[in-house]
Every structure is written in C-alpha cells, then in structure tokens.
Amino acid sequence: MLRFVPDSIAEGLMRPLLLLDPAGGLYLETMAPDARFAALVLLGVAVAITTRCRRRDHFFNPSQRALLVGMAICFYAWTFVSGNGRYFFWALLVVGPAVAVMARGLPVTTALRNTLLIGLLAAQVWLVHTILRPNVWAVQAWHAGPSARLAANALQATPAVYFTIDAISYSILVPLMHPQSRWSNIAGQSDIVPEMPEHEMLRTLVESPLPKYMVLGGSRKPGSAQEHPQPKELRFASLASEKVGVRAMPGQPCTFVASVIASVPYVREGPKGGERNEQGFWFCPLEKVDAVAWRTTTAPVAEHLDNVFERIESLCPRLFPKGNARTQALGLGVYARTYSHSDTGVTVGPGGQVFVQNFRAFEPIELGTVESVRSGNFTLSCDRLPGRYVPPWMRP
C-alpha cells in the first residue's frame, strides 16, 4: 500500500529526521512526532567520528552491533515497502533502548551521557505535548463491562444478520446483540466480487433464513416519531446493499436504538437552550434480492469510459495502478474507480468532467473533459498528489 511510502528516494533516506515533523500522514494518519530515530542517527554519526578520530576500538559488543545494524536495515526496508507505523511496532519499542546503547559509545562521562538521554526524553515529551489533544478520540474507561451500551431493545432477543455500511464497522456492537447473530461490513476499501474468497461467505449470509438488518450510525430528536435515517444516508446505504443482494424493505420503519457512545465524530448539539439529539444506531430491515441478481462474473460498467481511466493509469501507474480498481456506477451519471493501493480515485461527473483525488485532500483536481483526457490533452503531476505527506522544505 502506497499510503506512507515516500515519494522519492531522498525523502525515504531522510525519514529518520522527518519523523520529527509534527504532521499527519507521515507514518500514521495522525500527528505522532518521534525524536528517537533522529537521535539514533545523530548519536551514531558522533560515535563514528570520535571512534575514528581517537583511533578507539569499537565500543559495542557483537550483540549491540547486531541490534544497531539490524535496526538500520529493517528501518529502510520498512520505509520503502510500507512506511506504516502499525507494521513497525516492534522497532518503535526497541528504538529507545537502542538510543541508550548508542549513547554508551560516546567518549564522555556517565553524568554527561545521562544528561543527554534525559534531555532527549524531555524533548520527546515536549513534542508530544505540542500536538496532544486529550480525549480527542473519545476514549472511555472500561469498568464493569464494555464502554459501549445500547438501550434495551427487542432486537437483542433474537439472532439476525447485520450489515454495516460504513468505513467504521461498529464491531463494538457485536457482543451487545444476540450471540448467534452474524455480521458483515460491506463498505470496505474494495467491493466483494465473485472472484474473491470472501464472496461465498457473504452469499451465505444473504441466503440465511435469519432476519436481516442494515446498521447505520445516526441521531434523532428525543421523543421524535422519526422512523428512518436521513433520506440521503438511507439512499446511499440502499444502493450499497443492493450490490450484495439485499435491499431495504419498502415502507418498513427502522428501529432507532440509543447508545452511550457517539456514532458520529462530533456530538450534535440542539438549538441553544434546547435538547441535544440522541446518538445511536438505526436498524433497518432488509429483504433479499431475487437470486438472479447474483452473478458468477463481474459485468463491465461504462465500458465507453475504460480508455479514459486507462489513459490516467498509464500516465501515473504508481498513483493509479492498473488492475487495482474497477469502474463503479455511483448514480446520477457519476462513474468512478477507487484505487485502494494508493488511496486515490478517478471520477467522471455527469457533465463529462474528469477528476482525480487523494483521499486525504480537501478538493479533487479537475483534469478536463472526457474527450480531452481520452486524447491526452491534460496535465497531471505524477510525483505527488495533494493530500500526501509533504516534507517541510517543499511546503508553501
């Protein structure tokens, strides 16, 4: 996956120093500056210089040398293959002791060496303090049970099949419902198509005789007679569910279940002095689509636009890898390809305008019309799309 892989070799080689940068999208989605790798490099340079100038023997024993050399090799292998901090967790734990080992190679007194290490620790604390926003992720303490709680409801008494349709699967709800219920999130980074091994498991859930529900996070006014989520949300969810063989039952009301955890990032306040909206989840009943909807092959969509997408893929294969996405009809004359490998997308609007976008960018880049892209009459920088990490010296 390209999300955290550097856009140039020079940027990758400087990654130990760039980890000092308090910016998101570097090796995690959030800001997480880390001074330890830069300290390890600088201490290593200092030890190498003093060892050569003073003609000292190498200070480190074989185990320590193996640790430091192994860290360097693994660091750059990780940087250019993934760059994702989740897959380098062991090194994030080991780098602190590695810094202490490297500091022992300095030809200074123990007191000065300890002062340097304490100063580094203080610098790291200060870096974290500058970007820390306490409880920004709504962390809740785990006391007598799960932090998520649902209001008592009839759905908990019987097993069912639940489909979540969101980037967040709401898996924290699973232990709160009937233990024989089954769950599937059908809105991941790529569609589940017949060629995938997951398709058979999904089909088994759709064919199950158990009642089926679509689960959507949302809110409503206290005491309201509202029976459905917002129309736009319900329509989007219905379109997504129909792709896998289920759809919302026409005319059937949904069940709203209040929850103590917010199902949206921010609490929706009511009017000043008024009541706050209840936060919770909508459970909307589903019906199975006729069996003919299941296909053994993936039918092509908007074949007349294939050469438009392929023109962009051939120009920037790193950002828009060929074969990583297929054309999807989003409704209202909009067609798109979503590239999960690079977190990018190409969209063709109803008016024939072509856009590209990195998922972290606020706005898409307009390339031109379908005709201009098809003929190659457009410009697009393949080095770095807006939304990807930008080193400090390249920022405006």
Summarize the structure.
The chain is α+β, with helices and mostly antiparallel strands and 396 residues long.
Write down the domain tally.
Answer: 3
Average predicted confidence as pLDDT: 82
**Integer-rounded radius of gyration:** 27 Å
- Annotation, overall tally of beta strands: 11
**What low-confidence regions span 5 or more consecutive residues with pLDDT below 50?**
262-273, 291-297
Helix and strand content put the structural class at alpha+beta
What about the largest sheet? 6 strands, mixed
Per DSSP, the total helix count is 10
The end-to-end span amounts to 27 Å
What is the 3D form?
globular
Q: DSSP strand (E) fraction?
A: 15-25%
Helix-strand string? HHHHHHEEHEHEEEHEEEEEH
Helix amount: 25-40%
